[in-house]
Amino acid sequence: MSDEFYVVAIAALLPLTALMLVLQVNPYNALVIRGILGAVAALVYALFGAADVALTEALVGTMLSITLYAVAVRSSMSMRLGVIAAEPHPDNERHDIPYPPEPLLSALRHMLDQHHMRLERVAYPSLPALRTALRNKDIHAICIGTETNESALLQVDHTEPYHIQTRLQRLYELMQKDIPSTMASLSYVQPNTLESAAIASADSQPSPVEGKL
Predict the structure, then answer these.
(1) Residue 163: is it exposed, middle or buried by C-beta count within 10 angstroms (0-12/13-18/19+)?
(2) Cβ neighbours of residue 198 under 8 Å, at least 6 residues apart?
(3) Phi and psi dihedrals of 212, rounded to 5?
(4) Residue 129: which H helix or E strand, with range?
(5) How far apart are CA 162 and CA 99, in angstroms?
(6) Cα separations (Å) of 68 from 54, 64, 105?
(7) I need a surface site. Which of 79, 120, 127, 177 has the fewest CB within 10 A?
(8) What is the chain's pLDDT, residue by residue, as a tens digit (213 residues)?
(9) Which residues does 139 contact at the CB level (< 8 Å), separation at least 6?
């Protein structure tokens, strides 16, 4: 009787763990619960005499799936922010560094932390390179200083020191709610608008380099 109680108790952990996995909103905690679910499933299979199925569940269903899930979460749960790379000044000092200041970065990280995401900055040599990366969907948003010379290529609000432009409407809505307007101005550009601008630019200046973009 006691042996049957242990079997029932262990088997009851399977739907309970599965329910915890479904209700979990944090993807990193979900990975841990997925590992627990796989261990419980393998134990249940072993208790019912299916040792080969338990081994398959432990090696493939649990270890392999968690590895793939971890890679997917690591690569997808991030916001890629494009910035213009700082160039060295003749006096060997950084001059007019366009990277966002720490208060703006902290506000972005705080916004992303609420959705279990992280911030990744990607540097590009110029604003045209930034816009090309945004058009090709290599990055999710760009951030430039409104006082730089290249900011004239964008219609930005020069009353704010920085401007953030994104191609994702959901990201734009989140930044509107969480990023103070005193830190940076925001704009949303539709992907088809970027593609149309790229076609118009290629028609106006038919160079071999632009023809490949």
Answers:
(1) buried
(2) 132, 135, 213
(3) -90, -10
(4) helix 127-135
(5) 9
(6) 20, 6, 30
(7) 177
(8) 566 788 888 888 999 999 999 999 888 899 999 999 999 999 999 888 888 889 888 888 888 888 888 888 887 888 999 998 864 444 444 444 446 788 899 999 999 999 889 999 999 988 889 889 998 989 999 998 876 545 455 555 556 788 899 999 999 999 999 888 888 889 898 866 665 544 444 443 433 333 332
(9) 80, 81, 82, 122, 130, 133
Tokens of 208: 């071999």
Q: Which two tokens stand for residue 99?
A: 């990277």
Where do we find the tokens 């309970």? 16
What string of H, E and C letters represents the secondary structure of 118-151?
Answer: EEEEEEECCHHHHHHHHHCCCCCEEEEECCCHHH
Give dist(CA 141, CA 83) in Å, integer: 9
Structure token digits, residue 75 = 């690569």
Whether 167 and 142 have beta carbons less than 8 Å apart is answered as no
